[in-house]
Amino acid sequence: MTSYPKTDALMARGRDFLGTDHAILCGAMSWVSERNLVSAISNAGGFGVIACGAMTPELLDAEIAATKAMTDKPFGVNLITMHPQLFDLIKVCGRHGVGHVVLAGGIPPKGSVEAIKAFDAKVIVFAPTLALAKKLLRSGADALVIEGMEAGGHIGPVSTSVLAQEFLPELAEDYVVFVAGGIGRGEAIAGYLEMGASGVQLGTRFACATESIAHPDFKKAFFRAKARDAEASVQVDPRLPVIPVRALKNKGTDAFTAKQREVAGILDTGSIEMLEAQLQIEHYWAGALRRAVIDGDVENGSLMAGQSVGMVTQEEPAADIIAALMRQCEDALARR
Ligand SMILES: Cc1cc2nc3c(=O)[nH]c(=O)nc-3n(C[C@H](O)[C@H](O)[C@H](O)COP(=O)(O)O)c2cc1C
């Protein structure tokens, strides 16, 4: 058994919180983070998270059951706060005794944190500002992920290095905080742990793991891409506050700009409400991501990827990726 004493010590709080050997989460990736990748991550000592995305409660129920059949290690479920059946999805997690629920995509609606805690699960939240982070943690959330704009998928405007400097000195002593966005190697993990993070969350680095069901062409696009190819989408209408998405540039990213114009046009006519407009944009992404991940349409689909994509060069088992990250982190700490 390989040992990582310095890393283990710095990850102790995160490992306790997650119930894992390593405080490394594989962030939920819609369509990618399903039973195969999630169980592989958890079986390798990390923490896998099912991406519920736009799934119905029935589909989530089946996915959790299938994941449980593939691992007896802890794993979590990521729910998008704007999902119209959020509370039904929470009930499904409760029925399965899911230990950790991640609420993503916005401020948790009233009662959602309480509903999760009612079945003794831990609630992990995201917060774009320090003030909101403090509020959520004081009002019941158990842990926080701070995610910088280097990340793949939906992103905020601030980089991971700046968020870490703003949030960790204020929060890390009292709360469990995981750092995400742009992490591709263990040396970076060492740095965030030394700043007080309890652990880290990676997505891009795991998307092409051997166990990931992503289409071979999706994976090939990742292997070819460099950091600069993972571009953030641009919001075209000031009334339609679209959360930017970082993805590899292709015809699909251009089509997203066109989709925003189309939805903004419908908003002009007054025939839909703002929430509905935003939901249409979200559904667009869910569909586009599916086309790329499942169908392998790397031209028109969405190749959500973070800037660390340049460090993804080949298919590797999840266990090897985790072992490499842990080794790099331990070596970096040993050199201090
Ligand atoms: C293909 C892809 C899909 C993603 N889908 C989701 C999602 O459904 N929900 C979510 O909270 N985060 C999602 N993310 C973000 C990841 O969970 C994770 O926080 C992020 O990838 C970390 O940054 P990194 O890509 O730089 O490692 C996605 C990321 C990628 C690359």
Task: State the gist of this model.
Helix content is 46%, strand content 15%.
Distance between the termini: 24 Å
**Percentage of residues in helical conformation:** 40-55%
What is the chain-wise order of helices and strands? HEHEHEHEHEHEEHEHEHHEEHHEH
Number of strands: 12
The radius of gyration over CA amounts to 19 Å
Q: CATH top level of the largest domain?
A: Alpha Beta
Low-confidence stretches: none
What brief labels describe this structure?
single chain; 336 residues; alpha/beta; 8-stranded parallel barrel; 4-stranded antiparallel beta sheet
Explained architecture:
With 336 residues, the chain is α/β, with parallel strands linked by helices. The chain has two domains: 234 residues, TIM Barrel, CATH 3.20.20.70; 83 residues, no CATH class. The strands form two sheets. Strands 1-2-3-4-5-6-8-9 form an eight-stranded parallel barrel, surrounded by six helices. Strands 7, 10, 11 and 12 form a four-stranded antiparallel beta sheet that branches. Strand 8, helix 8 and strand 9 form a beta-alpha-beta unit. Flavin mononucleotide binds next to strand 9 and helix 9.
